Every structure is written in structure tokens, then in C-alpha cells.
Structures
1.
Amino acid sequence: MNKNIPAKGGSASGGKHILPPLPYAYDALEPYIDARTMELHHTKHHQTYVDKLNGVLEKYPKLADMPLEEIMRKLDSLPIETADRAAIKNHGGGHLNHSLFWQIMGPASPSQGGPKKATDEKLIEEITKTCGSLEEFKKKFSETAAARFGSGWAWLARKANGQLEIYSTQNQDSPYLTNDTPIIGLDVWEHAYYLKYQNKRPDYIEAWWNVLKLLP
Ligand SMILES: [Fe+2]
């Protein structure tokens, strides 16, 4: 039996993790994210995280039915060898992070069925309360994404106490590692933008807001 990651990122039972299909075509996020980048990102980068995660989890049959988010939350206390713990953090994080990333984006052009926004009024209200305005939120989030040195992600995540927080993580570190729940994540690894934007990460970040479904 295969284990798939459901829409919002994470749990299922039995068997192996699989690459979740993209909910749109590879060229659906054009012109903001190009089709070639999307295809490589999904079929090569994300697939590799899935394969390597499955490879290491084979050694731990007792974890087979534990949701990946829960594995992340408990990673430090689970009986896992040190090297495998690092591998699960990297590849499990990569799988969770990308699974969310595909879901929160959507077609940008009308010919692809977009722009369809899936705005969440309660979330918008919370963001406005936390940051002052949506514009301020976007500014702060974009600055956080731009400032991440090297590879990583920018996040809007919910802390265990319910508060929203903007921060970034390095590599594929998942917010679940610190018991947070990711809501919006932006991949700022070069593999996410280099073909179209080369070294101009701020241009990619600015363009990305056009394909984020959750906010107007
Ligand atoms: Fe990525």
C-alpha cells in the first residue's frame, strides 16, 4: 500500500511515501514560475526527497504508521541512529515542505483557470492583527525570505500557543521540528528559481506573491 501526503501536508498510514501529483500543470504558474523549473522541482528534487526518506524509513518499521509531522515533532526523542535522524530531518522535511508549497500555489493566468484565490478570511484577519496590514506582512515575509543565507525557506507558521510567526529555516528544516504548524512556506533554494531568475532572489519572491492562493 502506498502512503500519500494529503493536501495539507502529512499523514497517512502504511507503506511508503509517494510524490503527490501537482494540482495543476507545470506551466500553470507562468510567467511567474516557469514550466521547466516546476517540472524539475517536482519530478527531480521532490522525488529525491521522497525516495531518500523511504530509504531511511525502511530501517524503522515501527515508524511506518506515524504521521511524518509527528516524526518531525518527536525527532530528537525517537530511537533513531544519528545519521538517520539527520536524513529524516532533511528528506522528510523536504517532502513535507514541498507538499505544502505545491498546494498553496495556483494558476496565475485566466487561460489556466486562474487566478483562483483560496483566501481565508480568518487567516487574513489574524495576519492583519499580527502585522498591521497584509502589505506589512508581505513586506516582512519577503525580507525574511531574501535574508535567508544559502538554502532554506521562509515561513508563516502557527506556534503551539496559537500565535502566528514569520521566520525562516535553513536547508529543509520543517517548522514541525519546533512544534509549529506551517501555513505559508516559500522555497528559496536556488533550484526553485535559478533558471528564470538566476541570482535575483528578490525578483522571484516578488513574482511569487502572484501565485500564492491564500492571500488576495
Ligand atoms: Fe525546493
2.
Amino acid sequence: MKATFGHMGTLTPVMEMILEDLGHESVTPNRPTRQTLALGAKYAPEFACIPFKIVLGTYLEGLKKGADTLISGGGYGPCRAGLYGELHRRILNDLDHDHDFIFFWPPLRKPGHFYRQLHKLKGPHSWRFLWKTIRKAYGKLAVLDGLEMRAQFIRPREYKRGSTSRAFDQAYALMRRARSAPEIKEAGAEARAIMEKVTFDQTRKPLKVGIIGEIYVQLEPFANFFLEEQLGHMGVEVRRSIYLTSYTRHDVLSTKGDMSSRRLAVPYLAQKVGGHGQNSVGDIIRYAKQGYDGVVQLAPFSCIPEIVAKSLVPRLSKDYGIPVLTLFIDEQTGAAGVQTRLEAFVDLMEQRRHRGQREAGRSSGPPDSPVQDKIS
Ligand code: SF4
């Protein structure tokens, strides 16, 4: 089969590897562009969330490049994630595309269906071979997550603007080429060495921001206007609430999601509301407790779970003394508007930090009291 799939951050080289290991041709999607989004938006329902539109545009591009099979996965609601696969399938059928569609529900929700889809994908290979491939893929994801985290740490401290992103691109290309387990190990070590060659100011204490919200707009840089890079270049260290390995552990191999943030959310939001809405509430609390300077919530326009979380933001912000910027994103959102809002948010956090330091200097409290405790 010639298979394509949606582009989502660093998942792409891993999907490519799995498909090729199983003897398929990977019609690997390029990073989405404005054209991809316009193509998806043309055929998607107007109020569909932006991840749906970008992924639909990516499928259409893949089919044009000769793919005959689409690989997709989806959530189980109660938001629209539960309908993603079926809706994509119907839209593409209406457009008369001749293709097969392999759709994965979370394995623990529909084990029988998951098994049948996996059977289709593995072809003549043994289950043992498939298991080894999946384990290897998880190992590759773990290295890629580690590289992303390292880039997020170094970027706001780099001496030469852009050097971290260039090193990351080099490291990413190396990882993409690595196929066997020993190659992944070797490429991982080389990739880490490339990152460590970036010179940076070890004494700097940049602002720290937690990124929370819906998974696709968190993980796909095109969908979030390259937010991590933008903030890094403004001198801000970021940390996301979702990485691919944590998502795999909490949401694919479990039906519970990330319990550490869900538990924190309970006094404010006691039940799941779909997507990562409840997690977003808990993540704001977690980042505040860890002394972060602020939180950016990323939400596709009309995303119900994130709208629910957003309704609690003023209270959380007040109770925990942490500023939260919510960015609702759709195809009308402009890069300049996002940049302006980020710059204003960074200014606000800097002022709060300086004010906190001045107040800490005046107070007789312990010198390492968290700044957030002193800001109402
Ligand atoms: S989590 Fe939000 S963006 Fe994702 S499918 Fe649900 S409503 Fe849409």
C-alpha cells in the first residue's frame, strides 16, 4: 500500500519508519502550509476545528501525490474528536477519491476494531515483528521528545539567535534517517551532541512559560504559528503539557489520561469534558505551583473542551496568581496578531517578575519564596 497520514510535529518520521518497516510505501506529508489549510477549509464544515481542516488538507495533498491509503486515529469524544475519522472518510468519499482508510480508535476503547486495523497494517509480518517495530518507534519518539525539550531549554539562552533551531533541524534530519534500533541509538547520541554544541549563557534565568491546550495545536508548529520558537527568541523557556511519549502513555495505552493534572483540576472541574480540557485546568495549577511565570493556552476556535477550561481561567489565574494567555486559533488568525499578543504577554510577565523581586527584597520572608506567592 502507498499510505499517507496527518502531519503532527515529530510524529512524522516515526510514522514513516513504521510504514516502511512493514513493507508499505510512505507518502510522507510535508509540513502543512497555508495552502494545506485552505484546501482542508474548502471541503470541511465551516465550524470544524482547525486540526480537522489541516489534516483534511494534508490527506488531499497525499492523495494527489499518489497515496492509496489514509492512516488516521481519533479520540472518543464527548467532543468532535470521536467523529473525526468518519467525517474525513465521508468527505473524501464524496470527493470520489479511490482510497482505503485505516482508522485507529484508542486500543482500550475498541480493542476488536483496533486489532483488525492493526492486522491490515501489519500485512504478512508476524505479530512479533510488529511489536518490535512499535517498541523501536517508541524509542525514536523518546529521543525526539528529549531533543525538543533540550531545544526549549537552550533557545532562550542561546548566544546566536537561530542557532538552536538550526541544530535541532540537523538533529531531526539525522533521527529521520535512522531506521534500525542500533541506528536510532547512534543517531540519538549524535543528535544530542549536535544540540550540545550550541553555545548559550548558562547563567541566564529566562521567564518560564507552560504551554497547555488541545493536542494538535500544541504539537504541530504550523498550527500554533511556531509559538515555541517565537517565545524562545523572545527569551522565554517553554515546556509543553503534552509530548508524544506522554500522550502515548496517558491517552493511548490508558483510558484515564494524565491523572496528575486531572486530579489537580478536580476542585474546579470534576469531570472529563473531552479532549484535554480537564487537563488544561490542572496544568495551569501545576505550572503555578512549579513557579512558572505564565501559561499559554492553545485552543482551536470552537473547541468545546478548551472553551470549558477557558471559562475557569480568570478564577485559576486569581487563585494561583499566574497570568494565562489564551489563543483561539482558526484559519482567519494572523501571524502578526499572535506575535503582538505574545510580546505583550512577555512584557507583562517581565513586569510581574521585577515587581515580585522588588517586593521580595523589601519583605523579610525567605529569599527563595516563590515569586507567585507574593503577587495577588
Ligand atoms: S479537542 Fe477540540 S479541537 Fe480537538 S476534536 Fe475536540 S473540539 Fe475539536
